[in-house]
Structure formats: C-alpha cells, structure tokens
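Hey, resending since the last one bounced:
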Amino acid sequence: MKKKWYKGKVFVITGASGDIGSEVCRLFAPLGMRMYLLDLPGPALDELVKEIKELGADYVEAFAFDVLNPEQVESVIKSIGEKEKYIDILHNNAGIGNICSITNGGTFKEYRKIMSVNVDGIWLVLQAVLPYIGRPAPIEGSPNRREGQLIFTSSSAGKTGIPNMAAYSMSKHAIVGMADSIRLEFKMQNHNIQVITICPAPARTKFWDQSPKLKDWVEKYQKKGHLYKYVETRDIAKLVLKASRKYKREVFVPRWWWLLSFLQLISHRLAGNLLIKIEKSKNNLPKS
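The structure tokens again:
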C-alpha cells in the first residue's frame, strides 16, 4: 500500500493498550488514519488515546472490549461499522499465554483460558467484522470486490512446538491456520483482502510478569546468549507496518527466526532436538 492510501482509512486493533499493540498504534497514527482502540478499560488505554491524537491520527476512539464477551464484541464492531461503513484494517492483536502443557501439570482450565482468548476471541471478532472489512474496489468481472487488510499477531510458537508451552503453541498454530484459510477464501471470492501473520520471538513485554513460572522461563531463555535476547516491541511494530505497506503474508521477528520453520521442512526431528537442547540447558536437565 502506498503511504497516501492510509490517510482517512479506518484502523481497528484489539489488545490496543498492550506493549505490542500500543507501539503499532504509535506507528500507524502519523499516517492520518481513523483509529479505534479496543481493549480492557484502564488508564493505559486512556493515555494511549491522548498520545495517538497528538501523533497525528485523523480520529481516535477507544472502546472497552473483552474478546470473550460475544455481545460486547458484536455491539462494538457494529457501532464502528455503522459509523464508518468500512473497516480497512483490522489488527487481531489481543492474546495471552502461560506455561501450560500436559506433562507439566497444566490444567484444563488454564488451557481453555488461553484457547478462548487467543482463538475463540479472534473467531468472534472476525465474524463481527466480516460485513465491514474492506471497502469497494471493483474491477472488471468482480463488481463486488473489496480491498482491505487483516493482520494477526501470532508467534514464533505458531510455527513450531515449544516445550512446556503446549497450550500457547496450539493457540498460535491455530491463528496461523485460520489466517492461511481465510486468505484463500478471500482470494476465491476475488476480494483483495490481504491477510498478514506476525510471528515474533519472545519480546520485552509485561506478558512474562503474569506468573513466577513464566518469568523464570524467560529469564533462563535470556541467559542463553545474544541469539535469545528479547525482541523489542518497537521492532515488531515496525515490521507490522512494513508488512502492511508491502503486503508480506508472514513476518518473523527477528527475521532469521524463519530458519526454525525452514529446518522443520528439512527435518522435523532436527528442529525438535534443537528446541529440546535449549529447554534442557535452561533447566539444567541431563542431556540424553
């Protein structure tokens, strides 16, 4: 998309006031978009609205938004859709995670919470957005063609299994699968709805402060050296914008993480053994 395309267009983002969401908002705001920030209510969301206005957004409005509340999801999206007629970009960014797997005592309740937010929530949002996503861009033979973008925040865990994080990995794999499916569906319908998935490595966010186990996991991960350092949220946001501008269907942050997915194509065993080695070294487990 050319820079001028964004001016006056409608941008909707879930999980707006989180570490990644807020950085994305800061980079899209100067493009002069009409921005709707959806998240759980709180001071962070209120402050972000003020900041985004100052950064040059054409219009900014925040909505209290819980992706697990179907009535609220439907009501908020309908309110935006009826007001604007079209939603040009939807960034499905809301998500949670934890150390939860079958072999480490993860409970079904923990598993269902992760899947409910990361997968069910996106489904509900997409259903509500469908009548409004993209605006008319007819071409010969396709008078009802629409043009717009859907952006999904997945994870590097959405491209490979992560030891001790089965529930989170499942949810992020589901996002990639969902995005790949609807990308083809829009193409079959001759719509130019660009579907983008963002797959970052562990980033410097408050995500890791949710529980002692999660914090301990990432601290040990960081001690592995330079290749395992946190990804900065600003860098993720920059690649989100670049993916939107140049329509990159799938983006890894840092870029070299695509090698892990590539390794799996060559040898799933090789990639798996690499991840096991990393996990064992973090936890001082004996090598087999």
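Strands lie at 10-14, 34-39, 59-64, 89-92, 135-136, 146-153, 192-200, 250-253.

Sorry for the duplicate.
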